[in-house]
């Protein structure tokens, strides 16, 4: 851990406690620094007022800066959140995997969503442009922008293929569990009618799936920032 950031949580407007995250900036520099900069508001925006929209049996997920924009264009997120997309995070994950040094999504891990593993491939579409027909590819949904994050309150290996671990909870895991105990919309993905609707591309199934595991309560980060910095290197220096 190189430095700590704090996330003050509120549930339906009532204070729920503080979560302190220790960052791995030496080991996961791209991801950890991006998370730290947003939490500290160093780019002009932060996780303040951003909500936790997904709660599963072993992790909670924050929506990040999905809707932030000054002009309605994606480049605003690039300017203020450290990157237009999550390609740098995905590249870092690959490098750490090759060296066997990538942290895993174990209990207490904090990770940034870098890859959308469930995104279907782009669909070809024939359009007319300048009097000629050409094929363009339409994406079903945008790729992760590298600002959404998850906090695991139990081991969550299913996040390893998609999420870059940037730190761990050093204080406040009880607060995370309090969030996790909130009542949520029932996950109905095993329902035969839902599975059939999704298979045939029914848009109602897509809309319904987005609501699964969503808490009924409004859970937001009421305040966040840098808690303090420290480094074991200082001890090494003093011992010389």
UniProtKB/TrEMBL annotation:
Residue ranges of every copy of the PPIase cyclophilin-type domain listed in the record: 6-226
Lineage: superkingdom: Eukaryota
Pfam families in the cross-refs: Pro_isomerase
Single GO MF annotation: peptidyl-prolyl cis-trans isomerase activity
InterPro entries: Cyclophilin-like_dom_sf, Cyclophilin-type_PPIase_dom, CYP26-2-like
PROSITE patterns cross-referenced by the UniProt entry: CSA_PPIASE_2
Name of the protein this chain belongs to: PPIase cyclophilin-type domain-containing protein
Source taxonomy: Eukaryota, Viridiplantae, Streptophyta, Embryophyta, Tracheophyta
